[in-house]
Amino acid sequence: MLRSVSFPTGPVPVPDVVARIADGRTVRAVWVNELGGTTFAIDSGAEYVKTDALSSVLAAEVPRLRWAGSFAPVPRVLASGPGWLHTAGLAGRSAVDRRWTDEPRVAARAIGVGLRRLHDALPVADCPFGRPTWVPADAPAADRTVVCHGDACAPNTLLADDGGFAGHVDLGDLGVADRWADLAIATLSLGWNFPGDDVAGVLLDAYGVAPDADRIAYYRWAWDAFDEGLGAPAG
């Protein structure tokens, strides 16, 4: 959450816990962040193992995945431990996968559809989690209160091969907030991942909402303010 992620550009050492889980199967690093966290695909994506020096990041994700998995397509937790999380593979590719580099409208549409489905599916009244860590306690009255993804950057939506929405990943900051906490950051991230393509309107149209300039500005400010406190770039 709130850290820039990218595709590996060179060899990445495989931690002992990942090698043990793989048990001779193929292992490939698929995502890295600037603080040393890495996601490894096992057996061509049949399973994944996330590792992170900040154990609390993954510890928070485990119960959220287990709860959200009853209502929405998210990775199924297989096992976890200090600094690692082992999940079953979820069909689909990240919205920023090279497959979608030249199809930003397709990616934006799927992100919007996916967020609407998530917000409609997760029951606010039954959610056992508080607000996302970066959302201020004194946030303005909500347009619509939902269970937010909490880190709705483009990479965290998966697309099926036909370009449709397939699922969500990285739910470690899932919590109850205004839907614009997700929409403001999802539209912001399109500019990072698809520079030069103004497709925020496509995302919002697919979600089914008109732009709310005030709420977008507020939640982007809150995101940046929290992130500056961490000393890490958003993404």
From TrEMBL:
<dbReference type="InterPro" id="IPR024165">
    <property type="entry name" value="Kan/Strep_kinase"/>
</dbReference>
<dbReference type="InterPro" id="IPR011009">
    <property type="entry name" value="Kinase-like_dom_sf"/>
</dbReference>
<dbReference type="GO" id="GO:0016301">
    <property type="term" value="F:kinase activity"/>
</dbReference>
<protein>
    <submittedName>
        <fullName>Aminoglycoside phosphotransferase APH(3')</fullName>
    </submittedName>
</protein>
<keyword id="KW-0547">Nucleotide-binding</keyword>
<feature type="active site" description="Proton acceptor">
    <location>
        <position position="151"/>
    </location>
</feature>
<feature type="domain" description="Aminoglycoside phosphotransferase">
    <location>
        <begin position="134"/>
        <end position="216"/>
    </location>
</feature>
<dbReference type="Pfam" id="PF01636">
    <property type="entry name" value="APH"/>
</dbReference>
<keyword id="KW-0067">ATP-binding</keyword>
<feature type="binding site">
    <location>
        <position position="170"/>
    </location>
    <ligand>
        <name>Mg(2+)</name>
    </ligand>
</feature>
<dbReference type="GO" id="GO:0046677">
    <property type="term" value="P:response to antibiotic"/>
</dbReference>
<keyword id="KW-0418">Kinase</keyword>
<dbReference type="GO" id="GO:0016773">
    <property type="term" value="F:phosphotransferase activity, alcohol group as acceptor"/>
</dbReference>
<keyword id="KW-0808">Transferase</keyword>
<dbReference type="GO" id="GO:0046872">
    <property type="term" value="F:metal ion binding"/>
</dbReference>
<comment type="similarity">
    <text>Belongs to the aminoglycoside phosphotransferase family.</text>
</comment>
<keyword id="KW-0460">Magnesium</keyword>
<dbReference type="InterPro" id="IPR002575">
    <property type="entry name" value="Aminoglycoside_PTrfase"/>
</dbReference>
<keyword id="KW-0479">Metal-binding</keyword>
<keyword id="KW-0046">Antibiotic resistance</keyword>
<feature type="binding site">
    <location>
        <position position="156"/>
    </location>
    <ligand>
        <name>Mg(2+)</name>
    </ligand>
</feature>
<dbReference type="GO" id="GO:0005524">
    <property type="term" value="F:ATP binding"/>
</dbReference>
